[in-house]
Amino acid sequence: MVKCVCKGVLLMRSKVIVIINIFGVKGYGEVEFVLSIIKIIAVVAFNILGIVLVAGESTTPGGYVGGRYWRDPGPFANGFKGLCSVFVTAAFAFAGTEVIVYSFRLYVFY
């Protein structure tokens, strides 16, 4: 089932790329321009959302999320070892999505 859906998505994506290439360099430039504007708007929106959520506007019952753990137990509760463990967790969080996408890509194409 998954392979069938992926083939359909890849076929539609290929058709869109061919249609864009039919219009030549001007068409490709316009599509690139529009997609870059969408990307810039998304980055700005996520930054604003992050600031708003950290500043206290959230739907959680606790309210202000940004400083909840700053006072108790504090930013360096377990010293340097605790700081390093946070960096390891953050690295896996950022790299995890790339690993999933890469393994899915290998599954689909090989």
Detailed description of the structure:
By secondary structure, this protein is mainly α. It has four helices and no strands. It folds into two domains: 1-68, no CATH class; 76-110. The longest helix has 32 residues, at 24-55. The mean pLDDT is 78.
Mean pLDDT, to the nearest integer, reads 78
Overall shape: it is elongated
Q: How much of the residues is beta strand, in percent?
A: under 5%
Could you describe the largest sheet, including whether it forms a barrel?
none
As a whole number of angstroms, the C-alpha radius of gyration is 22 Å
Specify the helix fraction band: over 70%
Regions with pLDDT < 50 over 5+ consecutive residues?
none
What is the element string, with H for helices and E for strands? Answer: HHHH
Task: Tally the structural domains.
Answer: 2
How do the helices and strands line up, and which of them pair or pack?
Elements: H1 2-22, H2 24-55, H3 68-71, H4 79-109
Summarize the structure.
The chain is mainly alpha-helical. It has helices spanning 2-22, 24-55, 68-71, 79-109.
